[in-house]
Every structure is written in C-alpha cells, then in structure tokens.
Amino acid sequence: MPLSDHAPHPSHAHHAHHGPAGSYVIGYAASIALTFVSFELVLEGLLPAPLRTAALIALALAQIAVQLVFFLHLSREARPRWHLFIFGLFLAVVIILVGGSWWIMNNLDGRMMPSPDAMSAYMHDQSGL
Amino acid sequence: MTTDTETIEQLSADARVVFGFWAYLLTDLVLFASLFATYAVLEGGTFGGPGPHQLFDVRYAFIETMLLLTSSFVAGLGMIAAHEGAKRRVLAWFAAAFILGAGFLGMETAEFAHLAAIGATPSASAFLSSYFTLLGTHGLHVAIGLVWMGVLLVWALRRPWDHHAERKFMLLSLFWHFLDIIWVLIFTVVYLFGLMS
What we know:
The complex is a heterodimer.
Chain A: H1 11-14, H2 20-43, H3 49-70, H4 82-111, H5 116-126
Helix pairs in contact in A: 2-3
Chain B: H1 2-42, H2 52-55, H3 58-84, H4 87-117, H5 126-157, H6 163-196
Helix pairs in contact in B: 1-5, 1-6, 3-4, 3-6, 4-5, 5-6
C-alpha cells in the first residue's frame, strides 16, 4: 500500500488482515455514489441554488477524503505520520492561496471604477439630491 | 539475520523514495491550486462570448469522470497484485488502467477540438484562457502518466518481479490516484458550478 510502507516488515504481510481489495472496492463504490449524487443535483436541479453549491462542495470534499483514505491509504500510515503532516502543511498553503486570491480579487472588484450609469447614480446618492 | 537487515534497509530506502514522491505531488497540488484560483477569479470574464453554461456538456464530463475513476481503481487492484508479487496480474490491471486513461484523454482532446472548432479558443476570453490552462495542465499530467505507464509495462515485461518493480509501480499508482483527486475538483468547480452559473 502506497503510504503505509514505513513499517520495517514485508508489506504484503502487514495488511493481510485488512483485506487489501476490500479497501479499493469500498473507495470505488463510495466515489461512484458521490459522483453520481453530485451530477444528479445539478442535472435535476435539486435543492435551492445556494444550498446546492454548499452540497456540491461537501460532496467533493467527501470524495477527496474517501480517495485519500481508501486509495492512497493516508490513514493507515505507521507513526510518525510524516505523510499526513506534510499533507496538512500543504493543505494550509492551498487554502491560503485559493481563499486569499478569491477574497482579494473579489474585494478589488468591488473597489474598481463602476460603469458610468452606476457612477452617476452613486454621485447622485452621495450629493444628497 | 543478514537477509533481515538487508530487507529492513531496503524497505526504509523505499519508504524514503515514496515520501519524496509524496512531497513532489503536494507541490504539484500547489500548482493546481493556483490554476484553480485563477479560474475562479476569471470564470466570469467571458468578454461577451459564450460562458460555461453554453459550452459545457455535463453528461460528457460524467463519462470522462467514470473513465478516470475506474482507471484509478483498476490501478489500485494492480498494486494489490504488485504487493503479492503476481507479475502477470500487475501487467493486466495496469494495461486496463492504461486503456481507460487513454479513453479519458481521447475524450478530453475531442472536447478541446470541438471547442476550438466553434471558436471557443484560449484567446477568445479570460474565462477560456483559464479553462484551457487548468484542464490542459491536468490533461498533460494524464498524458505523462500514460507514457510512464507504457514504459513501465514494457520494462516489467522483460524482467523478473522484485521490490524495485514494486516501488516503481507504487510511485506510478500514487501519481495516478493524485490526478483522480484533481479531476474531482475540476468536475465540481468547472462543470457542475459552470452549469449552475
């Protein structure tokens, strides 16, 4: 198994009791189910729009967690969990990068020069007329 | 006793290589994160041209998803065979993963060609520039993965199975599962959010 080979003993012996194929079958079935639900939500237009966006994000995160656990075996790593540690570190970088870019660019967008119509409406408003 | 010591040293050397490769994959994740951030910012910049809603076929993306997901699963089954030292089964599973991955890449290439044919090229708008950069980078990774897989299959065919072979296939399978995770984000952010916009 990819990430669990720290332990200094032959890799085929140490996950025999887990049923190696079982992990992949569970991961695959869960991934297909989550993918199917995501696409159905959009294709059938289920749930009101803001709730649907939240549900899609939750489904994508759930699927990533499923693949990390059942395909990449991140949870089965022997201690010390270096793979998990560095993963968390990079996850923080990713969150800062994506969240920060999105936040800054949206904020900047709000401060940009508005269209002439919007500008005159704003000036009209500000002058108290 | 000597054999045991050698085995332990061998395994910890393998573990270091796997950890190094894992660190590389995480830097690749940062590359994709910046492309996702760019896409999220520029998605609305269609320059009066078609947006995600007009261009994307979500059902097509669903089939692409199934191909890549199944390819990743099949590669996982190949890794079980690899840990058991069953070379024939390793080659068979990874050949299947290769075919499924090639199917995905073929579909993606056809989609790009279709978009270009109707005038939705990377230079048409900021939205399309960021779309082609994000999906093109993922597609390029898949193409590199397929070449790697092909080379490794031919290499493994001609020699007896050993821990070197096991390690090589382990790194490839990590890469393949990683691309699957990136695709989950792509179909959610680009296709599903795109259809709702």
